[in-house]
């Protein structure tokens, strides 16, 4: 019998002992679980689940507050999805293009939340971000949710991304780390309101998405009950 693999994440194969995920690395108050999803087939299954989400709720390029579309494309699953228009950023129960309720959060994604969030509560919202070659996300705080007691859990799939993390004030020193496919980040406590962003991706660094690019999934509790 080979030794159990580390970092294979939640949902072990039947009869197999769940290998405990490798302990996380703490960076500026957030927890980085490197290679939490080591299994390529699981990553592919998640991508398929997220493609199904995007089939029902097509990706959008949200407008920034200053009237330029974001370079990142977004859609959502769950009870509430993050949307933006001239009225600003907020969570809504329907896709602004189709008028339909957001699709359910895939079980493959919820399993990650159950494994690392440290709460019995389930997330209200699953934001799916797609980064093409030139996409980036400026330094920002996530402050559109009603409850900051619960962590935000993020999962990276596809190309590597340079993630920058600061403090709760924009002026504070930042630290950067390359996130790779299968990495999971948990932002709780003080880190929940820290400034963060994606400076760039290494387009083509992963073969998970045949056309290249990166998917980031964030799970959040939006309402306070
Ligand atoms: C730190 N997404 O969707 S995920 C976002 O890779 C967002 O697409 C980035 O920032 C991405 O809002 C970063 C990591 C992340 C997510 C939420 C956070 C870091 C966070 C909330 C608070 C602090
Ligand atoms: Fe964010």
UniProtKB/TrEMBL annotation:
Keywords from the UniProt entry: Dioxygenase, Iron, Metal-binding, Oxidoreductase
Region listing for Disordered, in residue ranges: 1-21
Co-factor: note: Binds 1 Fe(2+) ion per subunit.
SUPFAM superfamilies xref list: Clavaminate synthase-like
GO cellular component: cytoplasm
Pfam families in alphabetical order: 2OG-FeII_Oxy_2
Binding locations of 2-oxoglutarate: 129-131, 214-220
Residue sites binding substrate per the record: 82, 89-91, 144, 170
GO MF entries: broad specificity oxidative DNA demethylase activity; ferrous iron binding; oxidative RNA demethylase activity
GO biological process: oxidative RNA demethylation
Positions with a binding annotation for Fe cation: 140, 142, 196
Top-level taxonomic group: Bacteria
KW NAD (keyword) present: no
Domain Fe2OG dioxygenase: 122-223
Cofactor: Fe(2+)
Protein known as: Alkylated DNA repair dioxygenase
Organism: Haematobacter genomosp. 1
């Amino acid at each position: 019998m080979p030794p159990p693999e580390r970092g294979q994440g939640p949902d072990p194969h039947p009869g197999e002992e769940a290998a405990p995920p490798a302990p996380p690395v703490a960076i500026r108050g957030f927890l980085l679980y490197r290679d939490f999803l080591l299994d390529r087939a699981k990553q592919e299954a998640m991508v398929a689940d997220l493609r199904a989400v995007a089939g029902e709720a097509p990706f959008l390029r949200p407008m920034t507050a200053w009237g330029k579309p974001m370079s990142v494309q977004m859609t959502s699953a769950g009870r509430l999805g993050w949307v933006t228009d001239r009225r600003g950023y907020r969570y809504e129960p329907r896709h602004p293009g189709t008028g339909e309720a957001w699709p359910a959060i895939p079980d493959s994604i919820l399993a990650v939340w159950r494994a690392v969030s440290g709460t019995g509560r389930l997330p209200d919202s699953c934001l799916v971000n797609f980064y093409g070659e030139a996409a980036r996300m400026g330094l920002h705080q996530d402050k559109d949710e009603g409850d900051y007691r619960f962590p935000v859990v993020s999962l990276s799939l596809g190309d590597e991304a340079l993630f920058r993390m600061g403090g709760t004030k924009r002026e504070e020193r930042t630290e950067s780390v390359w996130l790779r496919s299968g990495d999971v980040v948990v932002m709780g406590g003080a880190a929940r309101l820290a400034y963060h962003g994606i400076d760039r991706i290494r387009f083509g660094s992963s073969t998970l998405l045949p056309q290249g690019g990166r998917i980031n999934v964030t799970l959040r509790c939006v309402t306070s009950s």
